[in-house]
C-alpha cells in the first residue's frame, strides 16, 4: 500500500446528543442567521407531531418557517425539485430536516438543487458538488440511517427504477440534533429495519477497504451497542435507556460509514430498493448474511473481530466455523427483531437479477467492498438470497 493510500480523513457535523437535543433547533437556526426556514419532513413524522414542535421552537426565536412534506420513502428526483422550488419561492435561507433517512436525504438534495439550479440527477457520484449548500440542521426520528451525520444522500430515479448515491462532504449537515426521544414514535417494524441498517453500516465500514483507526473504534462500538440492545428494544419499546443506546449505536455506525464508506450489501440494497421501492433496512437485512458469506475470506481477520464483538468466542474455531457462527448469529438477530423476509417473497424474480446486478456494480459502495466484485459475483449473491 502506498503512503498516500494509507491516509485517512474524518468529517462529522457538530453533534448534540441526548434527550431534549431537538429543542436547541431555534438557537441553531438563529446562529445561522435564518430569515426563513424550510422544514423538510414526511407525512408520518408530521402526524407524529415532531414538525409542529420544530415550527413552534423556531417561532419562539421569531423565525418564520414553511413545511415541505411531499417526501416518500426512497425520496425521488421530482420531490427534490419541488422542495427546491418551494425553498426559492418562500425566500428561505436555512433547511431543517426532521425525520428518517428519506426526509434528510431529500433535504440534502434540495440544498444542492437550490444552490446550483440544476437537476439533482447531475450530481450522482463522488465529490460533484461545486457550491456549498445552505445551512442544514438534521433532527433524526429513526435510529439507523444516520443521514444526519453522513456525507451520503441517496435519491431514487423512478424513470430508471434505480437509486443513485451522492457522496460529498458538502452534504454533511452543519448540525445533527440527535435526540433519542424522537424515536419513540417508530413502530416495531421500523425499529427493526433501521436498527439492522445501522448494524450493516457498522459491519460494512469495519471491513471496508477504506477503514482505518479513525472509523474502526466507532464501527466496533456500534456493533456492540446494536447487538446488545436492539432486540431488547423491540421487546421493550418504552425503555428509554435502550432507546438511547440504540440511537448512540446508530450515530457511531453513521460516523464510521460516512468516512470508511460501505460495501456490497449497500450497493446491492440500493439497486434493490430503487427497483422495487422496498424499505432500505429490509433490503439490507435480506442480503446481509449472504454478503458475509461471499466476503468472509477476503477479510477474515476483520470478520473475526466482528464475530468477537458480537459475543462469539472464536478460540479453537476454524475460519469457516467462525464464518458460519457469524452468519447464524446475524440470522438469529434478524429473527429476534421480527425480520424473516426473503427476496422472492418481496417480488424479486430470477429474471430481475441481471438488471439488479448491473446497477449494483455501478454503485460507489461496491468500490470499498473487501472482495472485488464482478457482475457475475453479484448475481450469484442475489441468487443465494432469493
Ligand atoms: Fe444504510
Automatic annotation (TrEMBL):
It comes from the Bacteria. Its cofactor is Fe cation. InterPro entries: ADH_Fe/GldA, ADH_Fe_C, ADH_Fe_CS, Alcohol_dehydrogenase_Fe. Transmembrane segments: none annotated. Keywords: NAD, Oxidoreductase. The keyword Oxidoreductase applies. Gene3D superfamilies: 3.40.50.1970, Dehydroquinate synthase-like - alpha domain. Residues 13-180 form the Alcohol dehydrogenase iron-type/glycerol dehydrogenase GldA domain. Belongs to the iron-containing alcohol dehydrogenase family. This is Iron-containing alcohol dehydrogenase. It comes from Marinobacterium maritimum.
